[in-house]
Fold this protein.
Amino acid sequence: MKKENINQFESFVNEIMKTFEGQGIGIIGFDQNSVLYEYYQGYRDVENNLPINRNTIFGIASITKSYTVIAILQLVEKGILDLNMPITTYIDSIKLPEGHIPTVAQLLSHAGGFYPQERFLMKDAAKALGLAETVELSKNSTLASKGIEMVVKRINEMKDFNGTPGQHHSYSNFSFGLLTELVHRYGGEKHYTDYMEKHILKPLNLTNTFFEFNRTHKEKNITKLYEKVIDHMNVTDDYEDMGFVLLGGGALKSTLNDMMTYTRLYLNDGKCNEKTLLSKDAIHSMTIPRVAYKPFEGYGYGLVSGKIGEIEYAGHSGGLTGVSSYFVFTKATQKGLVILCNTSNVPVSSIGIAGIKLLNDQKPDWQQMDIIGSEWPRNIIENTLGIYESDEGAHIEIKDDVTGIAWFSGEERLKVTIIDEHAVWVHNKILASYTPILRDAQGRATAIYSGSRIIKRKL
């Protein structure tokens, strides 16, 4: 790696951390056999100046989904599940209208047709069930049963869909709640987490990767969780805070070291420690884009895939209270990168794109396409202005004010650069996100993308 590229990359990391008030971050780049690059900034515990290292435990949030996909594909290879069967084959309590029943494969790609739904949190469900605060929620069968009951009930109440299954990608934690239940029901173990530990975590020797929540209070080398709320930086050690009632969407905690081992599983075609966890074909199937995501990216099975020049990459991000995570790899060049940050809403995926470019001897910038502006005619403007909301809590308003088209997320005003009638760039401080707009036959905007989710127009 060129020294000037390393300097540029680290300057970018510093700028991101300063701009988004990140409290601590660890980055590790590697190939199959060795560590190629490491970088640390900030602290795992800011109040006590405790440093971060390879074995510091972080939340990894939605990176957990790729682990769940491996479990599903293991069951497929054993002949227990079939990706092309409708989900109702395996969970018959689901009652969806004809034409809106997704297959297992479509759920793996967030292409089930579901709009974002209210998050059912473990703590809320545990309280409703009267479970003691000391109960380990990650292995509680009563909570698991209640969780799938809540998710299925909400699915059965759905009257509106973002399209037919397979038509659109829209990030769905409910989909991975259903996939969690498949592992629970058909994995042959007492609980989802028992399956994951026996068939994935232990074979990979991931000793610091775990689902348990009580364990987080016993670990010494574990990060605090930081989240900026208005003008105050909240800090907590409560890893249950935003934990989903079904665990396969985001409950894992891990370290740079363990995540490096996990990423090498993809570089090594499903093999690790002389064990084959998944066939080469199954591992490859996760990286094949199944549904459109962005002009330069598609979504496979639990992984986002894209291209940097001629180099193909795959990976996934995660975000919860005090968690911003990302892992990525380039199979052709046998390089991998993991980023773990202990602060909410830090755009580490942009750091990841720059970092994987660095490892592949390219200029380490975050952009994958040029930001070029255009203009909308008046009729397009009038067909786009409005309020867009989701049951998950998104509230976005597109306005035409004195400075032009603006995107309001809550009280925050974000600048918009128009690409064409079907997409804009939404600027968030020093970065910009490619944002598609869905329109009907008359050109009226019916939904927008935000956070990889389709957010329906309300007004």
